[in-house]
Amino acid sequence: EVQLVESGGGLVQPGGSLRLSCEASGFTFGSSAMAWVRRAPGQGLEWVASLSINGDKTYYADSVWGRFTISRDNSKSTLYLQMNSLRVEDTAVYFCAKDFRGGGNYGWFDSWGQGTLVSVSS
Amino acid sequence: DIQMTQSPSSVSASVGDRVTITCRASQRISGWLAWYQLKPGKAPKLLIYAASTLQGGVPSRFSGSSSGPDFTLTISNLQPEDSATYYCEQAGSFPLTFGQGTRLDIK
After folding, report:
1. CA–CA distance, A87 with A18 (Å, rounded to integer)
2. Is residue A84 within 8 Å of residue A17, measured between CB atoms?
3. Residue A39: which H helix or E strand, with range?
4. CB-based contact B91 A106, cutoff 8 Å
5. pLDDT above 90: residue A118
């Protein structure tokens, strides 16, 4: 059974930093592209970032470009999201998602974690 | 960026009814569209990808179709457990974008 477990969320002040982790199990992590998707309170889903299988290609939403960094450690089956210069509008539940589309294409997420809450407030 | 216009924003229906949710893409995305179901406190669930391919384990009362820039999710024979918010997502190009969501309530 595929499992994705996010951690690292919490309360942080504007301008602060957080690092989210997503531990994967039940599939060959090193063979899957991965992504982060978020949902702000009362809002819809928003794609945040995607990462290729070996970590050499990264893609970001304009809203986080230059502030967030997606990375992975295939030896630990773990996905990361380093979030710097956090803003109030980054407050959301952050989901880790497995991308099964393959072939150098992205965007179909067949497994998701339950999410970790990031609250940015003074 | 490709905008996904999803409608309706909410719908209420009874057990056994059929419901249709639509997404319109602002640019050509071919068939690169997926549908997800989101319930409070649970992980989102992929229902359909490539516009009309049913994800494994998803009941056959869920179906997807497309016509030009319009994509449709149809849920037939509604069940109480179908109460959720549904989102379309275009995977034609980055940035990936979602529709605004449709909240489905079962009377």
Report:
1. 12
2. yes
3. strand A33-39
4. yes
5. yes
**pLDDT (tens digit per residue) in B62-98:** 999 999 899 999 999 999 999 999 999 999 999 999 9
Q: How many CA atoms lie within 13 A of B69 on its CB side?
A: 10
3-state secondary structure of B81: helix
- Across the beta sheet with A18-25, the strand order is A3-7, A18-25, A78-83, A68-73
Q: Do B43 and A105 touch (CB under 8 A)?
A: no
Q: A12: Cβ–Cβ under 8 A, 6 or more apart, which residues?
A: A18, A86, A118, A119, A120
Alpha-carbon gap, residue A50 to A106, rounded angstroms: 8
Residue where the block lists tokens 């918010």: B85
Residue type for B62, please? F
CA nearest to B96, candidates A111, A89, A54, A50: A50
Which of A47, A62, A114 lies nearest to residue B98, judging by beta carbons?
Answer: A47
- Contact by Cβ (8 Å): A109, A2: no
Instruction: Decide: helix, strand or coil at residue B68.
Output: coil
**Closest among A50, A96, A87 to A67, alpha carbons compared:** A87
